[in-house]
Amino acid sequence: MAEVDLIIIGAGPAGMSAAAVAARGGLQVLILDEQPHPGGQIYRNVAQNRCKRGFLGQAYAAGADLVDALDHPHITLLTGATVWRLDKGPQVTWSRGGKSQTTSAAHVLLATGAQERPVPFPGWTLPGVMPAGAAQILMKTAGMLPKDAVLAGSGPLLYLIAAQMIDAGSPPQALVETQTFAQMLGASQHLPRALFGLPTLLKGLSLIAKIRKAAVPRYTAGSGFHATTTENGKVEFFFRAKGRDQILTCDLLLTHQGVIPGTHITRAAGIAHKWNAAQGAFQPEHDLWGATDQPGLHVAGDGAGIGGADAAAAAGELAALNILCQSGQLSTDTRNQRAARARAALFRARAIRPFLDVAYPPPAEILSPTDETIVCRCEEVSAGVVRQAIREGAQGHRQIKTSLRCGMGPCQGRMCDATLRGLLSEGKASQPISPPRARSPIKPIALGELAALSPPQEEPA
Amino acid sequence: MNVASRFRTLPETGDRVQFTLDGAPASAPAGVTVAAALLAHSGAWTRQTVKGAGRTAYCMMGVCFDCLVEVDGTPNTQACMTLLREGMTVRRQTGLRDLNGGHCG
């Protein structure tokens, strides 16, 4: 017998919107999130930042509505709760405050979101080099502003962070973008469709206008990234742009090349995954409601394929409506009727994606980094060593992992899987590469905590 | 190596929390994570890898595990997933941990 109707893993836009819809529809909902507050990364600390840190912008502040909607008698929100196992049933095993427990549910919605795409280049492991999104988390959670930073990479988040830094009075020293004129030109064929998401497009243009107005130097088609640190800890950032070698000295080098779905939990759950070539990432397969091939498991939000916060909230609503229907709370007709608004919102939110995917692709030099570049940060394995193993016959993620320990550290491949795939596909673009296996525990857990866990109760025969 | 913080912390009113880093007193605003407190405190490394390379907190969202430090005697604690509390003892880590939490070369 299930202890709750629905467990939602992840309190970002998808999870929060699904929780509100499911609870209002009559289901008992448990939301688990590993961060201290609901919001996900996009709306991180949004309720704590009410009426302060206005530089984060209106689109961010709007996320507070989703947090407010969690205040419902049928919703239990547990923060600081890390899910590390998902069994058939479904049963969710999670750790909180150093203690683990297992909870069964009729349905589980996986809304675990995305992570920034790893951006490997020589020097990306040095103190002072961070993902731009990580710096944004510090702005949201601690009021910490990057000092004299260079923003490097590509994608809309880079513009948003630059604009937030400008509004906060700590503008970036420079913007070094990797996208080329040819890529922007190629993306222009997707502009007509992007017009369905006009507000998003206009917001992007206003961010770029703000960066221009603040006279932040911009380099485009930047390549050959390489960083070192000086004796006093400054970062020296070397790259090529405008036809010559460039050096910028800064306190922080903030990199970004878009986000990719976090798929450890969906892979460990045995859900089928497919390669999304346009987004350069694996994603779990699902139908129009987020239902997967595993009984009782739905997916929604960026963890199911990158679409952004608005798309995630709409997908969360659709998944919740489907779960309400499967639970007998809604007829199929009512489900379909009520889904119309969310479907339209999802369409609008996704309209700009094809344009963004082509305009801001991750460059070849991070997908297939130079030999001296560290690929696996945990075990300090370089691209050259991986290439040598591949030349010697290593096939697939698993053989690389067992022979080199690449992906065997505490991050469990989260920082190297994407790069490893790039190295494995060098010279054999047409050959399909399966996603790496993921197994429980999908986050490291202390042995003592594991030992203290009572085994799941068997159903009486 | 003494490296100035790479961040400027906004002057916001509110309580501050006292902690120690490798035995030396330090403080940070209440409500931040240990990783944020360490990055606000200094720009220098907070963990050294097996090969001796310096690292600081990287992803800030529990993904990369580069922020591992010893907190109140517990090694390999994710600083970015741990809220700073009054009187916390934080130690930087070098090399591998052994199972008892000590250092093993």
Tell me what you see in this structure.
The complex is a heterodimer of chains A (461) and B (105). Chain A has helices at 13-24, 58-61, 64-68, 132-142, 156-167, 181-187, 191-194, 198-213, 264-268, 309-326, 332-350, 353-359, 364-367, 383-391, 396-404, 417-424, 447-452, and strands spanning 4-9, 29-33, 75-79, 81-87, 91-96, 99-110, 114-116, 129-131, 144-146, 149-154, 174-177, 218-219, 223-229, 235-241, 244-250, 252-257, 259-261, 273-276, 281-284, 297-299, 374-376, 381-382. Chain A is of the alpha/beta class. Chain A has three domains: 4-115 and 260-330, 3-Layer(bba) Sandwich (FAD/NAD(P)-binding domain); 118-257, FAD/NAD(P)-binding domain; 368-424, Arc Repressor Mutant, subunit A, CATH 1.10.10. In chain A, the strands form six sheets. In chain A, strands 1, 2, 3, 4, 5, 6 and 20 form a seven-stranded mixed beta sheet that branches. In chain A, a hairpin with a 4-residue loop joins strand 18 (273-276) and strand 19. In chain A, helix 5 (156-167) crosses helix 8 (198-213) and helix 6 (181-187) runs antiparallel to helix 12 (353-359). Chain B has 105 residues and is mainly beta. Chain B has a single domain, classed as 2Fe-2S iron-sulphur cluster binding domain, sarcosine oxidase, alpha subunit, N-terminal domain (Ubiquitin-like (UB roll), Roll). Chain B has one helix and nine strands. Chain B has one helix at residues 34-41, and strands at residues 7-9, 16-21, 24-29, 47-48, 54-55, 68-71, 74-78, 88-91, 93-94. The chains are: A alpha/beta (461), B mainly beta (105). Chains A and B meet through helix 4 and strand 9 of A and strand 1, helix 1 and strand 5 of B.
